[in-house]
Amino acid sequence: MKKSWLLVIAFFCAITPLHAATPQHTFELRNGTFLMDQHPFQILAGEMHYPRIPRDRWRQAMRMARAMGLNTVTTYVFWNVHEPEPGRFDFTGQNDLAVFLKTAQEEGLYVVLRPGPYACAEWEFGGYPAWLLKDRTTVVRSLDPKFMKPATDWFQHLGPIVKPFLLANGGPIIAVQVENEYGSFGKDHDYMRAIHKLVMDSGMGGTAEHPTLLYTADGGVQQPDGSLPDLPASVNFGPGDAVHETERLRAFRPDGPRWVGEYWAGWFDHWGENHAVTSTDKQVAEYESLIKQGYSINLYLLWGGTSFGWMNGANSKGTDYQPDVTSYDYDAPISERGEPREKYFKLRDAIMRVTGVQPPPVPPIPGAATYPVRSVEESASLWDNLPKPIFSPRLMSMEEIGQSFGYILYTTHLDASQSGSLVLNGLHDYASVYLDHVLVGTLDRRLNQASLDIPSAIKGRELAILVENTGRVNYNIVLRGESKGILKSVQLGNRELSGWTIFSLPMDHPEKLNYRKMPCSGPCFFRTSLVTSGAVSDTFLDTSAIHKGFAWVNGFAVGRAWNVGPQASLFIPGSWLKQGQNSLVALDLQADTALALQTVDHALWVPSKELPKKN
């Protein structure tokens, strides 16, 4: 009875309006208990990432959290979206962190901020900007000055944006995480102390008079390596692990808070694997048990959203490589486009049972629609639209030529004596190999493929190797070697090739290519129109006609398409569309005819095709 009453207090503390003037609330940890304004407080949080949810839905997202009975939202800050080039910062539009935080405050929610600088989150390179790898000797996530200097500069820029939203300054931020699951990566406590100092020096840690609660988050086994003795620790785990993971937390920090930094309410998807579907009833029962025991808990995720553009991450243990799909649906309580699932309502009921508090009504979400797509009449061959080349005696990575995403093309010329096995040493990640613009074969890092046979032919053949960045690894020490392109050498018949012409293909403005009204095969762009009428709604592009490629709508980079599954559609927010004709561009690396594209009003997931045997 006592715990239920404390939860009621916590709920009403959360819905009290927050004002950005003198401090209206205090939040602290005392004797292992969170206190809000001196009263026991239980964090009931849901994670959502502002770059993954269309900006016009942020308020809807907050209201969905409140309607579920939550009092807090949690978000990462992804360094790479905010500093895409060294010293060039972007906090506008979809990246407007201040507006996201202000919206949470206006909707009566507290915020737990996870600024990194490492995030993980199945996000490209774990949130690190790719330009950190321009110098291949840089050791990211370490005390290497070549990493710590830009990380320090980043935090010094981020701090002034965050500081007005700290609770002590009248804002909604009650806690800031230091690093992220570092115990799963390393055990350099000097490094962790350095990151702690970055947070403090940036101002995100508050002041001596009004400190911000700082904390760490790790799996139970990894906590000794990833935590700091002077900071509270939270524990991360998934369904079925609550009993032993919370036991580990209590054994490690018997006087610390009962705090679950991440409770995994779903799972993510890799290309070439089946779509993840998790057990709602199992999750709800365990979640309800945890909040009954007084645990503060963050649902990861409440609303997963979409890793728009090129921002999907990848997993690897060193010898394998598993790139993530564009959708970050995660089988979360709220679907990719914002629809509450059965899981949402069952978790809502569980919270009501424990707190005895009726949350606000669940806000409605407009339905999705289908729109006609005009027949494709215009195409542009990649070969006819190559940019100015770079000439180099050796291979260069994407990062070395100042590129982060997309494709990189390497070409050289062979003579008649050169044939045999072509070996790409250090392929990251997917290569299409051409002789005189004719596809010879493909090599896929996922499948540990690195070689194919090149037939002998007439003198003067052009060898072209088109390499796709399929997503940088975001987890594990492997991320330190996540440069893209061909990282070591290309050998043909035991002879290393040299003298390369290199083309940077970031795919920034595909609508500006030289399109023609003629058929196209091979790596081709296709341009057409998606036509809306009346009120504009969300839709999904059916990508099943695309072998492997990408799509853009009105210049927005929507995401990847790949017929290996499981994702077979791309979410297009209604806010990206206008009434009438909308530009639609699709890239297909293996086009054999004009694409027949269509939209659907729901996400498409297909069983993954059987993967070939690995070499």
Explain what this protein looks like in three dimensions.
The protein is of the alpha+beta class and 615 residues long. The chain has 3 domains: 306 residues, Alpha-Beta Barrel (TIM Barrel), CATH 3.20.20.80; 120 residues, Jelly Rolls, CATH 2.60.120; 88 residues, Galactose-binding domain-like (Jelly Rolls). It is 18% helix and 28% strand. The chain is built from 10 helices and 31 strands. The strands form 7 sheets. The protein has an 8-stranded parallel β-barrel with strand order 4-5-6-7-8-9-10-11, surrounded by 4 helices. The protein has a 6-stranded antiparallel β-sheet with strand order 15-24-16-21-18-19, with no helix packed on it. α5 runs parallel beside α6 and α9 packs parallel to α10. The longest helix has 18 residues. The radius of gyration is 25 Å and the shape is globular.
